[in-house]
Amino acid sequence: MINIALFGPPGAGKGTQSAFLIEKYDLFYISTGDLLRKELAEETKLGLEAKSIIAAGKLVSDEIIVQILENTIKENSQARGFLFDGFPRTTIQAYILEGLMIQLNTSLNCLISIEVPEDESVARLLNRGLTSGRSDDNELIIRNRLKEYDDKTLPVLNYYREKGNYIAIDGFQPVDQVTAQIEEIINKELNKKLMNVVIFGYPGCGRGSQGIALAKKYGLEYISTGRMLEEEIKEGTELGKRITQMYENGVLVPDEIVVPLLISKIKNSQSVKGFIFKGFPRTLVQSYILDGILKKNKFKITKIIDIQVSTLELISRLDKRSKTSQCKPYDTSTEKIVRRLKEHEEKTIPVIDKYKQKHDVAIVNGEAEFEIVFERMAFEIEKGFKNLR
Ligand code: AMP
Q1: Higher model confidence: residue 342 or residue 326?
Q2: Which helix H or strand E contains 164, and what residues bound it?
Q3: Element at 58 (helix H, strand E)
Q4: Cα(59) to centroid of ligand 1, in Å?
C-alpha cells in the first residue's frame, strides 16, 4: 500500500491534483470535504450536524470526521493505497490517521503540502465559486476557512516535520508542474518499497540455486543463513568449529548464532531492491525473529514461495549431491539426509502453515529442469513486484 495525504489551504489545488493521482497510481480517494457534502446532500444525522459548521467555514468535530472515515476506510481495506485530501486538518486528526492506518497494518508514506499565498487561494476560490455551487465558496466564508487553516491546520505540519515525512512544494505554478513534482515524490516512495521474498521447501528442492539466480536477475540480496554459517566454517573460526559439530549431529544451529549474522548481513546490504531469504525462518521462533528484524528496519515480507518436490526425488537429488564435490557436511550419509528432511517436516512445515494464515503462499512445482522451475519462480517474483505497495 502507498498512502499519501495532500495538504494545503483551501484553493491550493488538492482536488485538481488528486484527480490525476488516483488514476495514475490506482489510489482510493478520500476527501473528507466530499464525504461531508455527501452526508449533507443525503440529510443524514451526521450531515445535519455538520451543516451549519461547514456553512460558517469552521472545522467540523473530530468525532464526525472519524465516523465518516472509519467506514470508508474499512470498506476499502483492499485498496492499493489511499489519497487523503483535506485530512488530517488538526493535530488530533494526525493521530487519528495514524490509528486508522495501524488498523490496516500500514502507515502514511508522506504528507505533501501544496503551498500557495493567501491572496491566490482567495482568488482561486472566488473563481471556483462562480461554478462550484458550493455555498462556502464566497469571500466571507473563504476568509473564515483560511483563518481555520492558519489556526488549526498549519500546526499539523510540525507533526509531520518531526516525523520526517513532510514534503512541501510550491503550488503557485502551472498545474502540470505541480503534478510533475508530486509524481516525483510518489515515485520515490514507491522505489523505497523492498521486495522481500522467503523461499521455503525441503532440502534438495532447489531453494538455494533458484534463490541465487533470482537474486541476480532482480537485484535482490540473497541471504542464506546456511551459507553464512559455511563461511564461518571455511574461515576456521571457533564458531565455525562448533557449527561443524552441530551439522555432523544433524541439529539446527541455535538462534544466538544465526540471528546476529543475519542482522549484520541486512545492515551491510545497501541499495538493494530487497532480500531473498533461504533457510530462514526454519522454526516458528525464527519466524517471529524475522518479522521483528524486518519490522525494525521498516521492511516486511512481500512474497513467500514454497517449492514442492516429491520425497523420492528429494532423496535421489541429495544422494547424488553427496557423491559430488558439492557435498555438504550435513548430507554425507543417508541417515543425515533423512534427519534433515524430518527436521523440515517437524519444524519448518508449521512455519509455512503459520504464514499461510496471513500471507498468500505461492506453491511452485520444483520437479522439472532448473530453467523451467526458474521461469515459474520468476513469474511469482514478478507478480510480487506488481503487488508491491
Ligand atoms: P473541503 O472540501 O476540504 O474544502 O472541506 C469543506 C468543509 O468541510 C471545511 O471547511 C470543513 O467545514 C469541513 N471539513 C472537511 N474536512 C474536514 C476535516 N478533516 N476536519 C474538519 N472539518 C472538515
Answers
A1: 342
A2: none
A3: none
A4: 6
What's the mean per-residue pLDDT of the chain?
93
**Residue 333 — pLDDT band, cuts 50, 70, 90?**
confident
Q: Give the CA count within 13 Å in the CB-facing half-sphere of 34.
A: 9
Peptide bond into 155 cis (omega under 30): no
Question: Is residue 223 a contact partner of residue 276, using CB atoms and an 8 Å limit?
Answer: yes
Interval between CA 242 and ligand 1 midpoint (Å): 65
For ligand 1, pick from 46, 61, 89, 140 the residue to mutate: most ligand atoms within 8 Å of CB.
89
pLDDT per residue as tens digits for the range 72-130: 999 998 898 999 999 999 999 999 999 999 988 889 999 999 999 999 999 999 999 99
CA angle 381, 386, 387 (to 5 degrees): 95
Q: Which amino acid is at 195?
A: M
Which cell goes with 113?
503540502
Q: What are phi and psi of 322, to 5 degrees?
A: -65, -15
Q: Which atom of ligand 1 is nearest to the CA of 93?
A: 19
**Kind of pairing, strands 303-308 and 195-201?**
parallel
CB 381, CB 303: distance < 8 Å? yes
Q: What is the Cα–Cα distance from 156 to 9, expressed in whole angstroms?
A: 12
Measured in Å, residue 186 CA sits from the centre of ligand 1 at 24
DSSP bridge partners of 29 = 83
The amino acid at residue 207 is: R
Task: Give the residue, by CA position, lying nearest to ligand 1 atom 19.
Answer: 87
Residue 148 CA, closest ligand 1 atom number: 10
What pLDDT is stored for residue 358 in this prediction? 86
**Which DSSP category does 205 fall into?**
S
CB count in 10 Å sphere of residue 12:
23
Q: Which of 350, 239, 364, 365 is nearest to 284 (CA)?
A: 350
